[in-house]
Specification:
The protein has 440 residues and is an alpha+beta fold. It contains 13 helices and 15 strands.
């Protein structure tokens, strides 16, 4: 089992209780506010609180019945600080943007509100959304709810911490370097990195800009169970994605236990391998043959170059050089070739199983991410190495669902269920089947 901090009901269960009249939307909102006020002090996850407007929105729902398109009717939730909510700050943790107030809701926010959700506020991020911890000059540091001396992950770390403690039942984040998957892994919740282009990121832009969606960057849901994750995904999708709906015993899995650029810490490897063994015992076909995998080391280098350009929005990199249009188009070509290679791999496999990160939650560290050293099997690894398990999914624009599978001592451990492009629903469904197999 994995360490759990709450038995609070999930999003679907809470909305169902409201629909049955067991509580009103205002009572649900008040209960969530009370949990935040009681639990968040030492964690510092919900850093922008919009309680008065949330109560007003809940009162407006009072006495009404949910419509057929409102499966989240009355559900209180929070969202990552980088998403615009009209009237609230969006700073991405950057001090220069601390006074910026959004004028319009992000597309995802609009869709979730349309489904009946009530937003209580926003959760913490690192500056520029560019770290695996959440510590910024605007809102301070978020602590891992399982161990306050450690990071909850980043950049959707506040989201994961709010979920793990039961403050809220639903969240939404973004991912370009593991920013949904790593917090889910570090904090013991569920998260889904969507296929690039599957869900609109409009309104989750760099503060005070209104530009094109960031290359490689996606938005996706976080929750405490697979059913809630699937609903949040379905409510926000841009595309009518397919669903194969195959059982564990009908599927072929490729297990990646090691990236050529970075080994996996033994504390993370052990619970993932136990989960893989359970899948095999349930009839899943497990392969350890890595010969069909694309060149992971080469693609990681291409990913890091594209990531650097995207995050800097074309500004000079650490070496002082500015990428040319030719550099960018060469990376797009490399990405397209890689997507074809992954598509060929998925002709022989349904899913790839892999760690979300090589390490469990690490101790808070003020060193910049690009210079940080992470403890790994008695040695250390740099950020470019530990990013390998995120980048192998991000660069080819694949979907991946992270579910908790076990523990490294008192810390949670997750596993990625990676599928073909636009097989998002299948990734979430298979993660749910694996979760029920492991945890009942």
């Amino acid at each position: 089992m994995y360490p759990k901090l709450t038995e609070e009901p999930g999003a679907i269960a809470t909305a169902a209780a409201i629909a049955r009249g067991e509580m009103s939307p205002l009572e649900a909102v008040d209960a969530a506010i009370a949990r935040i006020e009681a639990l968040d002090g030492p964690i510092n996850a919900v850093v922008i609180r919009d309680f008065d407007r949330a109560r007003d929105a809940a009162r407006a729902l009072g006495g009404k019945k949910p419509g057929p398109d409102q499966p989240l009717f009355g559900l209180p939730m929070t969202i990552k600080e980088s998403f615009n909510i009209a009237g609230l700050p969006t700073s991405w943790g950057i001090i220069e943007h601390s006074g910026y107030i959004a004028r319009e809701d992000a597309v995802v926010v609009k869709r979730l509100k349309r489904a009946g959700a009530v937003f209580l506020g926003k959760t913490n991020v690192p500056p520029f959304l560019s770290d695996w911890q959440c510590d910024n000059p605007n809102y301070g540091r978020t602590n891992n709810p399982h161990d306050h001396s450690r990071s909850p992950g980043g950049s959707s770390g506040g989201a994961a911490a709010a979920l793990a403690t039961g403050m809220v039942a639903a969240e939404y984040g973004s991912d370009i370097g593991g920013s949904i998957r790593v917090p889910a892994h570090f904090s013991g919740v569920w998260g889904h990195k969507t296929t690039w282009g599957a869900v609109s990121g409009d309104g989750q832009n760099y503060p005070e800009t209104d530009g094109h969606e960031i290359a490689l960057g996606v938005v996706g849901p976080l929750a405490r169970n697979a059913e809630d994750l699937a609903l949040l995904l379905d409510l926000t999708l841009d595309l009518p994605l397919p669903r194969a709906d195959k059982g564990i015993d009908q599927c072929r899995f490729l297990y990646l236990d090691r990236h050529p650029l970075c080994e996996v810490d033994d504390s993370v490897r052990a619970p993932i391998e136990a989960a893989v063994e359970a899948i095999a015992a349930a009839g899943g076909t497990i392969s350890h043959d890595r010969s069909a995998l694309p060149g992971l080391a080469t693609s990681q280098g291409d990913y890091l170059r594209m990531l650097g350009i995207a995050m800097a929005m074309g500004a000079p990199g650490p070496d002082g050089k500015i990428a040319t249009a030719a550099d960018w188009f060469a990376l797009l070509d490399a990405q397209t070739r890689l997507q074809r290679e992954w598509a060929r791999l998925f002709e022989g496999y349904d899913f790839v199983l892999a760690p979300p990160a090589a390490i469990p939650a690490f101790a808070h560290d003020l060193t910049l991410m690009q210079h940080r050293k992470f403890a790994l099997n008695g040695g250390t690894a740099g950020s470019e190495a530990v990013l390998a398990y995120a980048g192998m999914v991000t660069f080819p624009a694949l979907p991946a669902t992270v579910l908790p599978v076990g523990s490294a001592g008192h810390l949670p451990v997750g596993m990625q269920v990676i599928g073909p492009r636009f097989a998002d629903r299948d990734c979430v469904a298979m993660a749910g089947r694996i979760g029920r197999l492991l945890h009942g």
